[in-house]
């Protein structure tokens, strides 16, 4: 049953065999024997693809629940005896705040749980949790796959920023309607973008233009630091630039829509190693996001020092 679930989830004998650490021929033979014992064909195999039959579709849901429950029961027994253990494979976005803050969270988690080996991949979305065999991912875009389990951790607050040299040369906009007169560093490919800004219940929608666009938050930040124009950015990504004076807040009373932060898994029934990390990371990330939203500087050691985790644990970041 467990082998069938692995093959059906991945829709590939080769990927399932690699994940299970067994030869493809052995896996195929075991599935064939399983189908013979049931008396129904669960998988249709062709040279190009593998698809579930109607019987396979109906059986997969029930089998998945049973297999995951059995695996979780086993993991719980092992964790009671030895504590959570095993390799935990995580995918995270290659953003500056992840490199700065999440690295500290993972380091602290690893020190507290010596029997869990954490592997982290910097992976831009979309992430194939099943195909790449990840236990979980941290995402700033809600996955399109409805089968995935999404837990919201908090919000990254977004605003506008520019260097002092740009603002001295081009002037400071006093209202969002003045933004089209400025050079914008656009967060997606194209020569224009529509931005919606809010201030105390007031909303302003503007179409902005710019000579530079990119799909990297870190690169857009660097363009802004070098004086190329105004950029939208997560507050947590530029907090050090604000402190050092490399960047300044533009239209400080106005906010762009926040970016949600999610932890994504393939199932609600998680092994102890994944549940332990999710609980730990949720507490740490929530505290960091709340501190940033309140305008409190967050030192690099914040995530790794539990004594600094003095912020209560409401799970969603609030605006200052």
Automatic annotation (TrEMBL):
Ranges for domain HTH lysR-type: 1-53
Top-rank lineage group of the source organism: Bacteria
Signal peptide per UniProt: none
Keyword match Transcription regulation: yes
Keywords per UniProt: DNA-binding, Transcription, Transcription regulation
Keyword Ion transport listed: no
Pfam family, one: LysR_substrate
Family according to the record: Belongs to the LysR transcriptional regulatory family.
PANTHER family: HTH-TYPE TRANSCRIPTIONAL ACTIVATOR TTDR-RELATED (PTHR30537:SF5), HTH-TYPE TRANSCRIPTIONAL REGULATOR (PTHR30537)
Designated name of the protein: LysR family transcriptional regulator
Native source organism of the sequence: Methylobacterium brachythecii
